[in-house]
Every structure is written in structure tokens, then in C-alpha cells.
Amino acid sequence: MLKPFPSIFRQITEAAKGLGLEENMASSSSSGLTFKLHPLVIVNISDHYTRIKSQSLPPPSTPHAASASNGATSDSSSPPPQPPPRVFGCVIGVQRGRTVEIFNSFELLYDPSTHSLDRAFLEKKQELYKKVFPNFYILGWYSTGSDAQESDMQIHRDLMDINESPLYVLLNPSINPAQKDLPVTIYESELHVIDGIPQLIFVQSSYTIETVEAERISIDHVAHLKPSDGGSAATQLAAHLTGIHSAIKMLNSRIRVLHHYLLAMQKGDIPCENSLLREVSSLLRRLPAIESEKFQDDFLMEYNDTLLISYLAMFTNCSSTMNELVDKFNTAYDRHSRRGGRSAFI
Amino acid sequence: MNLNMNSVETLVAQIQGLSGSTSDVNHLHTLLKQLEELFKSESSRLAPLLTELDPSIHSLGYLYILEACTSAPISKEQASELVLSVGRFINLCSAEQIRVAPDKFISVCKRFKDQVMLLEDPMRGVAPMLTALQKLQYSSEQLTTLHPDFLLLCLLAKCYKTGLSILEDDIFEVDQPRDFFLYCYYGGMICIGQKKFSKALELLHSVVTAPMSVLNAIAIEAYKKYILVSLIHLGQFSSSFPKYTSSVAQRNLKNFSQPYLELVNSYCTGKISELEAFVQANNEKFESDKNLGLVKQVVSSMYKRNIQRLTQTYLTLSLEDIANTVQLNSAKEAEMHVLQMIQDGEIYATINQKDGMVRFLEDPEQYKTCEMIELIDSSIQRIMMLSRKLTDMDEQLSCDPLYLGKAGRDRQRFDFDDFDTVPSKFTV
């Protein structure tokens, strides 16, 4: 496998994000904190939500009853669709100076009567986590939904005694195929004067995704759906190659965006921004990660080997088609072959 | 019926008027076909009409008149003029129009070739024939009747390179089997002339294994050359035919090439003296087949074969030892042979002239370069295209009623999954 590739991919993603191509460009937060989110948190929240949602679904109606009703009108045995449940939990991590890094998260119970999170449980969990990760502090909380709501401010205020400025991580569980970015937003609370009354409101902050190699591999493994029976070697290879193909496609499209941007800048359509240019040039300088002769040799040799294998496969394929063709031709057109005797099974 | 001036005028006017769009051209074509006999009878008087027509716009009409003119026997003096005018026409005519009447075009070109040969100046015919061929083809994969004529002219004129350019294209469609046989045979000869023995082997192999219901002389001659080229290029010859050879060829070809098969036997012994003796003995036979030059090349390739065999045994060898083993006369000759082989890329070695030692090396190709990547990539593309074509052909053949009839008939009476609804006999 080509080792330098994933890190280059990450670097380009970061640079592309740095260019403000991510959704959270319009940052209205003025706290000046930089947020770094680990993918583990996102997977945790999504997993929590999916579990709760699937547990809350009613049991499916029997197939007999379903077919009997012909599906013309809605089946009376199934309840009307419910609004998706909201899940809650805590996010933990480290704050160093102006950088807030969110490493992990855990789930919490929400008490709808008091509109608050279960405090005792939270503290017990916090103690347990402190034993394993002494550096991690509670940085805030998370929930699911499409937008921040008024009732969330209550929970937010409750957490303020643990952390004077907690974060609110919101995951939007609705699947939008057109959307290209992560449906995760991080909110901070700020005191703004609205109509003469100082109020705490949620303001959006930008964030970046940060990961280490071990985390990336495990998240990758969990996040991608594998065929249920493990599949044969062929399907696994196909799935693996499909993944690489889509990754390369995305890489390609992002580089194309950068390229287009640079061209526009060159033509003069967009005012020249030197800071961005510096970032792009530093990105480009990072790219030939290994430049040695030996790498070139090994790389080309391996590439050639793969090409030769596919060539050989095509050859075999062609030869077998040719063989069948020749047999058929001989059967059809060669008058004198196989006179007498019995032919083999076709 | 006499062709008076009025009908001539109308003819010219019609040709000029109806040479615009494709529908007009088709209309003109039907008109001209109706006037066939007219053309034949009045061929001598039609020549002046040609001046009024423009070959690039009125190609179809021009073609018909030209064909009528050339059908009459032509004297040697007129031949030169005719060659010029036909050549001009071929260069200028429009391809779509002549494809409407391909047989007329082909007969004009064949007569052109005859005239050129009559004038004993085949060189003049090469370029026009090439243009004619390219205009007649629908695609580069189609073999036309003009291909073998073109190759014949190239052979006679000894301009092999032009012939080679046509041979580069792969052929997938053939109209007439005779064209195919001749094309491959002449093509093989051209490749031999250019010393491209692998391509020559491929072409001659096609002739030998092509489907034929009756043995033909082209295949016999091709088989003889095939044996010789195989000896020169591969150093060996296997007398078993691949399974796609027609049974006619399999049974009969060997009977006509006895001396050649014996040549193979004496080649395989590896002794130059025996080989030369054999060649001497059968000199007239080889000469009458006009294969003597090739046979001489076979003899000289024997030295190469022996030297190559040495690379498998020795790492270093002195030039004298080489000369002795290979039965060359002196170390100098051995050095020349080895040098030639190194240049041709048949062997990897270095000669140390100080002490007269030759060191044999491995193939230095490491398959590490970008050019190799491009080479393999292009080969993969070619084979993918070939694979697609093969699958198409396979599907077509599976639906062929002839095949289905035979396949159905050959099934055993009571089958493995017996008593099913598939009939065991197809009535077509």
C-alpha cells in the first residue's frame, strides 16, 4: 500500500478547511478559541442516537397482515411516525491555552420533567473517566437535532458550574445527500444585549477535525459498513477499492477547487490574499513527501507489477473467450472434424 | 443505341447537377446503373467528357466514365497518360461518393495497377494505391480488395516501409477470403524484407490457419515461408497445428513441403555442416520456390542460435572458444557475430577486447521506468478492446443457426438432465 497517501489527504483536507471551504466559515463567535473535534465524538453521538432511535421504534407488523392490507392506506396497526428522539451526553477533552480539543464523549440521561440532565450520574461518570484520563475535563455537552432550541439554554446554564463556558455540540441526524460537510455544529454561549436585556445566546463556532493514526484506523473500520457475512475476498477487495476510489475522487475535487481559486486569483477576478497563497504554497511544498531515488524505484516497480497482474488477468480472460469461440467455430463450420464418435457435453 | 451529342450533354448536366447531397448522389447512382450498356458501347467517345467534370465534386459520374474508358484494351503509349489521369482522379475524388459504387472503383484501380505493371514502373502506382485504399475503407479495420494489390506494388517497387504502415493496422473485417490470403502472404513477404520476423511470422501464421474449405496455393507457399521464418526467428518449428486450423490444411499442407520439413530436422541437429550440405543438395527445389534467400538466412541464423545456447551455459567465454563451439572460422568472425547480436538486442553481453573474453549478462530491463508503465498501459487498453470484440463475436456465433443446428444435433440422444423440454434436434 502506498503509505504517504493518507497523511497527504489529511493535510489537503486541513488546508482546504483552512481556506474556509468548510461550512463553518461564518463564525460569529468572538471568544477566539480554536476548537478541535475528534471523530470519535461524532461516531459516539451518532451511535447513541441510532441506538435510541432503533430501540424506540415499534416492532414491525407481521408480513401476513401487511400484505393483507395491500398497502393501499396506512396500516392501522402501525403508529403514526414519531419525531426523532433527542439524545444527550457530555463531551470531555483538554483545553490548552486558546485551543480546546474535544477527545471523547459519554451519554447522559435526560429528565424531561425537570429539563435537566441527571447530575449524580454525570458526576459518577466524571470520576470514573478521571481515573483513566486524568487530563480530561468536562468541556460541555452534546445533543441531536436540527437547530439549537430555547430549552437547551437551561441545560447549558446548569453545566456552567462545572465549566464556566461550556460547549454545546449539536449533531443533525437527518440525512441530506446534497450536503457535503459534517452536520455537526459547535455552539458557545455569549452574553449579548438584546432589547436592552443582557441574554445568553448560542453563537456558532468553527472547528477542525483532528485525529491520530490509531483513532483514524479504528473509526474507519467502525464507520464503514462491512458486508454482513464478511464477503469473499473479491467483495472485500471491491469494497476496499471503492473506498479508495471515492477518497481519491474527493481529493481530486478539492484540489480542483483550489486550482480554480488560484486561477481566478491569477486572472484577477478575486483580490489577492497573500495569507491564503502562503498556505497553498506551504501545502504544495509538503506534497512530494518522499523524494528519494529508492522510493521512486520501488514505487514504479510495484506499480508495474500491479499493471502486469491486471494485464495477465485480461490475457487469461481473452484466451478463454478465444478458446470458446474457436470451439464454436469448429463445430459450426469445419465440415470434416469429429466425424463419428460422440461429442462431449457442451 | 447511338449516343448523340444531346444525350451526352444531358448526361454531363445530370452528373453535374446531382452531385450535391447524398440523396442526389444515390439518385445519380441509380441513373448511371441504368446507363451501363450505354457506357460499354460508347466507351471510346466518352473520354472528352472527363474534361468537363471535376473529379472532386462529381466523383461518381467521373468514376463511371473513367471505368468505361479503361475497360477497352489500352496500348502502351496511352497507358502512361491513363496512369496519370487515374492517379489524379484517385487523389482528388471524394470518398463518400466512390463508396456508393465500390466495385467500379475497385475495377478502375485494378486496371490502374495492370497498367502500372505493364509500364514496369510499380513505383508510380504505390502512392495512388495507398490513397485509393484509404478512401475506400470505412475504417482502418476493414480489408478491401485493394490491399493485396497495394502490397504487391510495394513488393515490386521495393518500398517496404509504405507497405509496413498499412500492415500496422489490425484487421477485423474481411470481404473476400482470397483478399485476406493474399494480403497476409504479401504482408509476410514485406515484413521479411524489412527483417521484422515476428510480424512476418504472425501474418504467415494467419494464412496457414485461416479457415479454408479447399486447399489453395497461397497457403502452400505461405506454409513453406512460415517454416523458414519460424526457423530464423524462433530457432525451432513445431509441426503440430493449433486447433483453429482448418482440417483441410492440417491434412494436406505437409505433403507439399517435404524438403522444408527435412530442413527443420537437419536444423535441429545443430550442426552447420550438415545443414549446409542439405541446402546444397536441395538447391534447385528451394530456388524454384524462390526461397533460396530465406534459406541462406536460415543457415546464418544457425550461428546465432548456437551462440544464444552458449549464454545459457557459460558466464564468460573467450572468443576462440565461441568460434570453435559454433564452428566459425576465426575469433574475428565470432567477434563480429557477437557484436551484431548485441546491436540487434538478441543477446546481452560485453566484449573485453584486451583478452578476448565475452561476458554474458542478464536482461538489464528492471521494469522500473515510466515508459514501461505507458507500454503496459497501452497494451492493457489494446487487450481490453480485443476482449470486447471477442465477446461480441462469441455472442454472434452462439446465435448463428449453423452452429445451433450442429450443436443441437451433436447432443447425445439421452442427455444428462434427461426428458427436459429442450429439443435434441434443431430444425432450421
Automatic annotation (TrEMBL), chain A:
<dbReference type="InterPro" id="IPR033859">
    <property type="entry name" value="MPN_CSN6"/>
</dbReference>
<feature type="domain" description="MPN">
    <location>
        <begin position="62"/>
        <end position="193"/>
    </location>
</feature>
<dbReference type="GO" id="GO:0000338">
    <property type="term" value="P:protein deneddylation"/>
</dbReference>
<keyword id="KW-0963">Cytoplasm</keyword>
<dbReference type="GO" id="GO:0010387">
    <property type="term" value="P:COP9 signalosome assembly"/>
</dbReference>
<protein>
    <recommendedName>
        <fullName>COP9 signalosome complex subunit 6</fullName>
    </recommendedName>
</protein>
<dbReference type="Pfam" id="PF01398">
    <property type="entry name" value="JAB"/>
</dbReference>
<dbReference type="GO" id="GO:0008237">
    <property type="term" value="F:metallopeptidase activity"/>
</dbReference>
<dbReference type="GO" id="GO:0008180">
    <property type="term" value="C:COP9 signalosome"/>
</dbReference>
<keyword id="KW-0539">Nucleus</keyword>
<feature type="region of interest" description="Disordered">
    <location>
        <begin position="53"/>
        <end position="87"/>
    </location>
</feature>
<dbReference type="Pfam" id="PF13012">
    <property type="entry name" value="MitMem_reg"/>
</dbReference>
<dbReference type="InterPro" id="IPR024969">
    <property type="entry name" value="EIF3F/CSN6-like_C"/>
</dbReference>
<feature type="compositionally biased region" description="Low complexity">
    <location>
        <begin position="63"/>
        <end position="77"/>
    </location>
</feature>
<dbReference type="InterPro" id="IPR037518">
    <property type="entry name" value="MPN"/>
</dbReference>
<dbReference type="GO" id="GO:0005737">
    <property type="term" value="C:cytoplasm"/>
</dbReference>
<comment type="similarity">
    <text>Belongs to the peptidase M67A family. CSN6 subfamily.</text>
</comment>
<keyword id="KW-0736">Signalosome</keyword>
<comment type="function">
    <text>Component of the COP9 signalosome complex (CSN), a complex involved in various cellular and developmental processes such as photomorphogenesis and auxin and jasmonate responses. The CSN complex is an essential regulator of the ubiquitin (Ubl) conjugation pathway by mediating the deneddylation of the cullin subunits of SCF-type E3 ligase complexes, leading to decrease the Ubl ligase activity of SCF. It is involved in repression of photomorphogenesis in darkness by regulating the activity of COP1-containing Ubl ligase complexes.</text>
</comment>
<dbReference type="InterPro" id="IPR000555">
    <property type="entry name" value="JAMM/MPN+_dom"/>
</dbReference>
TrEMBL record, chain B:
<dbReference type="InterPro" id="IPR000717">
    <property type="entry name" value="PCI_dom"/>
</dbReference>
<comment type="similarity">
    <text>Belongs to the CSN3 family.</text>
</comment>
<feature type="domain" description="PCI">
    <location>
        <begin position="196"/>
        <end position="365"/>
    </location>
</feature>
<protein>
    <recommendedName>
        <fullName>COP9 signalosome complex subunit 3</fullName>
    </recommendedName>
</protein>
<keyword id="KW-0539">Nucleus</keyword>
<dbReference type="GO" id="GO:0008180">
    <property type="term" value="C:COP9 signalosome"/>
</dbReference>
<dbReference type="Pfam" id="PF22788">
    <property type="entry name" value="COP9_hel_rpt"/>
</dbReference>
<dbReference type="InterPro" id="IPR055089">
    <property type="entry name" value="COP9_N"/>
</dbReference>
<dbReference type="InterPro" id="IPR050756">
    <property type="entry name" value="CSN3"/>
</dbReference>
<dbReference type="GO" id="GO:0005737">
    <property type="term" value="C:cytoplasm"/>
</dbReference>
<dbReference type="InterPro" id="IPR036390">
    <property type="entry name" value="WH_DNA-bd_sf"/>
</dbReference>
<keyword id="KW-0736">Signalosome</keyword>
<keyword id="KW-0963">Cytoplasm</keyword>
<dbReference type="GO" id="GO:0006511">
    <property type="term" value="P:ubiquitin-dependent protein catabolic process"/>
</dbReference>
<dbReference type="Pfam" id="PF01399">
    <property type="entry name" value="PCI"/>
</dbReference>
